Amino acid sequence: MTLTDLFLSQAIDPFRFGMLVFLFLTMLRTRASSGTLIPLAAGALFVAVLIPMTMTKTPMGPDLYRAVAVGIVTNALVIGAIALLHRMLPKRG
Fold first, then answer.
1. Which of 2, 3, 23, 35 could join 43 via S-S bond, C-beta 3.0 to 4.6 A?
2. Residues 6+ away with beta carbon under 8 Å from 52
3. pTM summary value
């Protein structure tokens, strides 16, 4: 699988997208006590490692490292898009 194929398959993965949306929502609720950057970075890294570790038959090897590295990039882009959408939406109240 090429890097482009890997990136596109991770970018359209609904499980990954759902986990990142709820990670962002959790960050919004807890940012007064835990901040913004560290929880998002830790959560993005967690999702980038969790999904390849649980979805592959052989979780070790160079394919795992490639999937995790591409997953970190994908997660950063998705979280950036979610943050941009959050900033663009009108605030209630």
1. 23
2. 59, 64, 67, 68, 71
3. 0.89
